[in-house]
Write a structure and sequence with these properties.
The chain has 144 residues and is α+β, with helices and mostly antiparallel strands. 16% of the residues lie in helices and 36% in strands. The strands form two sheets. It has a six-stranded antiparallel β-sheet, covered by helices on one side. It has a two-stranded antiparallel sheet with strand order 3-4. It is globular, with a radius of gyration of 15 Å.
């Protein structure tokens, strides 16, 4: 069962600093290590994130994300380990970038947004879908 932030199956949009590639296979530790050590310490666990670039500007990319495993902070940790932290990420992103986004773009959020979520109800599979990218994330395509 795929997961995005909660138990269930889903996909989401993510806005990252700098453009990126296709799929991340990594084995971070069970406990996250924060900005300076996103891989963490201790026992390693399998974590796979599939992504597709939807659009990009010279400094930002809008990605469609699908989690093939569900680990704590998986999207945020994989983005940081790939060298493209999620915009507005106070735990794994750079303080300088966060400050720049706040001052120049009035951007005050984490660049993650679930657009499809599925879960098992009492008798059937339920899928909830949103077709709108949040305005704050969409405007970064125009670059700053």
């Amino acid at each position: 069962m795929d997961k995005i932030h909660i138990a269930g199956r889903g996909k989401g949009w993510i806005c990252v600093e700098k453009p990126a590639g296709i799929s991340i296979h990594n084995e971070p530790a069970k406990e996250a290590g924060g900005r300076n050590n996103p891989a963490g310490k201790g026992k390693k666990v399998k974590a796979v994130t599939r992504y597709k670039i939807l659009s990009q500007s010279p400094h930002y990319a809008l990605l469609e994300i699908e989690l093939l495993t569900g680990r704590k902070h998986q999207i945020r940790r994989h983005a940081k380990l790939a060298g493209h932290p999620v915009t507005g990420d106070s735990r794994y992103g750079s303080k300088r970038s966060i400050q720049f986004l706040k001052e120049k773009a009035n951007y005050h959020r984490l660049g993650l947004h679930a657009f499809q979520l599925g879960f098992q109800d009492q008798s059937s599979w339920v899928t909830i879908t949103s077709d709108r990218i949040p305005l704050e994330m969409d405007m970064l395509k125009q670059d700053l």
